Amino acid sequence: MPLLSPRRPSQALLGLDLQPDAARLVALGRTSRGQLVLEHCACEPMAPACLVDGRVDNFDALTQTVSRLLRRSGVRAVHVAMALPEAAVIVRRITLPQMLAAEELQTRVRSEAERLIPVPLQEVYLDYAVLEPRAALAAQDGSAHAPWPVRRVQDADPMDLLLVAARRERVRELQALAEAVGLKPVAVDVAAFAARRAVRHLMARSMSRPAGAGADGLADPRPRAEPIVALLDLRADRVDWQLLRGDELIHANQHLRHDLGGVSTQHHAGAGLEWAQALAPALSQASMAAGPLDALWLMGAVDHCADLAQALSDLLACPCRVANPFEGMVHRRPPAWRITRARRAWDAQGAQGAQGAQGVTAPQESAASAYLQACGLALRGFQP
Questions:
Q1: Closest CA to 246 of 131, 380, 145
Q2: Could you read off the pLDDT of 313-364 as tens digits, one per residue?
Q3: Pfam families from the entry (predicted)?
């Protein structure tokens, strides 16, 4: 089961994102003109303790949750891509000579894996991706725009590879879940990679416009081989953030609420500014060695996400937006959102009481950012 394989599936691919709070599903299509279409978008709240640290703890309850999600979304595609949390995989970046033959490359990659992966290779699924050629192919593909200007790869240049190892039992858990609900697993990705793929898609759209023409303010006329971007994942109790230069992860960190001076996670006047003032110094310090930030993207479903975006933009003098992975897509059927149960039902009544909740809730547009990883998984049907 490939983790990073650039092979493209021939059928429509579902993106199924499993999080402790909910399971989210995205299905994408494409018009005859090549424009992406949002076919299905659905969310089903997760019963407590279905997932613990990304590991399946209650297989039956999780199966029931995903089955309801599929049934009520009305989706017919069966091929699915899922993801493991980044903490469940081992990721290493390696550099090898550019002119290796295919068989020699496989041998060198395995040798590097034996040296770098602190787990017997018999216990893991191993995959790798060649980073620079992948970006170059995106630039030459008429159906997609490169997320950033890409230099031409010379034969004498070394090539960077991303090496990923995942324990076999973790991958088999997801495979068993998919098969139990009637799906055919095609690929297992890494959740953080899926989110980055969706952000690169947004960047590709913004950077393909003439400088200053984009309404989102993220098109930057300054020449830079690869933009430096911060991706912030806002959660109720913490903020996970990554600093990226193209495909390179420069810095990653996590701030718990008590680390941020006890700022409130509830929406109130000034909540966004509180978060921004707590986060801005860390972001500024992390980007000092790499260079000025080109853009910040926010994901998650925290109420004051939009307020935080404006406050961070003011403090860091950098464009900052809530990442809506469906921006610019055609919606097959209005409304595109389909949330079958409110999360508060689980909190107020518990898993048993919530079984009777029947309300259908349409979230605000900012809630689209919670689907970033699911959308990134679905994009594997059209991109590596």
A1: 131
A2: 888 888 988 888 888 888 776 544 444 444 444 334 443 333 333 332 333 4
A3: PilM_2
Q: Cis omega (within 30 of 0) on the bond before 20?
A: no
Sign for the CA dihedral angle at 250, 382, 9, 63 comes to positive
**In which band, very low, low, confident or very high, does the pLDDT at 172 lie, cut at 50, 70 and 90?**
very high
How many CA atoms does the CB half-sphere of 212 hold within 13 Å? 2
Task: Of 196, 133, 198, 125, give the one whose Cα is nearest residue 161.
Answer: 133
The number of beta carbons lying within 10 Å of the beta carbon of residue 348 is: 11
CA–CA distance, 280 with 170 (Å, rounded to integer): 36
DSSP 3-state of 211? coil
Helix (H) or strand (E) holding 128, with range, is strand 124-130
Q: Are 148 and 203 in contact (CB under 8 A)?
A: yes
Residues present in the chain in total: 384
Full 3-state SS string of 53-114: CCEECCHHHHHHHHHHHHHHHCCCCCEEEEEECHHHEEEEEEEECCCCCHHHHHHHHHHHHH
Question: Is pLDDT above 50 for 265?
Answer: no
- In the numeric block, the tokens 């992975």 are attached to 325
Q: Please, what are the domains in the chain?
A: 14-87+169-198+326-381 (3.30.420.40), 88-167 (3.30.1490.300), 221-318 (3.30.420.40)
Rounded CA gap, 282 and 104, in Å? 42
- What element of type H or E holds 256? strand 248-256
- For residues 253 and 282, the answer to whether their CB atoms sit within 8 Å is yes
Q: pLDDT band for position 302 (50/70/90)? A: low
**What is the gyration radius of the CA atoms in the chain, in angstroms?**
21
Answer for the pair 300, 308: CB distance below 8 angstroms, yes or no.
no
| Residue pointed to by tokens 């970033």 | 372
**Beta strand ranges found along 324-376 (DSSP E):** 330-331
Longest dimension (CA), the chain: 64
Cβ 203 vs Cβ 218: under 8 Å: yes
Name the 3-class secondary structure at 354: helix
Dihedral sign for Cα atoms in the order 194, 369, 334, 344: positive
- Smallest CA-to-CA distance from 86 within 7, 196, 179 is with 196
